[in-house]
Amino acid sequence: MTLLLSLFRFSLRFQLWRLLPLALITFCSVTYAQEADSSTLVISNSDTLTSTGTQSFAIKVTPSSQRERQLQLSYSAPVRLKQVLSDSLIHLPAFLANDVKTDSRIYWTGAALFKSFPHSQQHAVVDQLNQLATHWQGNQQRAALNLSQQIEQLTMGERIFTSLDYDNVRLNKQANPLITQSLTLILPTRPEQILVLGALDKPVWIKWQTRLDAETYLKQSKPLSNANNSDAWVIQPDGTVEQHPIAYWNRDHHDIAPGAIVYLGFSSLPDGFETLNKDIINLLRNRAL
User: Model pTM greater than 0.70?
Assistant: First the structure.
């Protein structure tokens, strides 16, 4: 009898130890949401999951910033980015299953995390361009107003510039931060166009083509007389900013990814607008596909 009791206690302890890890797994539930979230994000680079609070939060996942219906992943405790991406890859195909018009293949170059929408500087840049228009006349005035209107229409958010390459996140601890609060994850399909704007008659959307460079795309637009004729700025879909030479004397080919933005800066600006080119470029980095 004593031997049987001892065996029973050992078996019970063994079962409890097997169940304990299950109790430590972060609970994730899946729902659908109709509106974008505007909450904030806190990321820690700690190598271990520490106790930073037990308040639940949600990650909204969508293939497009223009889509109202979104997949929502709810977590009851802090979670690694790798887990968020894994859960998104598991549940997003089923979420999109009834949408026959949606390509389920993710364009990872354009994938992005956002704290909130809209970007805090979007309204300020729009105001700057509207004020700039009052300093100019004719084509330049119309161009400033057209640029202001285009920037106002773009979806800009407070973007978190971190790698979303799934293999990199999975294998590199530094690329796998701890997420503790709500955010929006956009996993888009590959766009078919790029946007060309800046010191032009008006912004233009141009079909993306393999191996075309900034100078070639700009030929399909109408630069202003005060446009920079030496270099253009390219904002790649991952938010990387590159300066591409476009003049005959310094031209050098650089590839441009689908969904990128080509920005042609103003070569001369009135007093008080000296930082406008930089402000616009920094804002465009936060565009959501």
Answer: yes
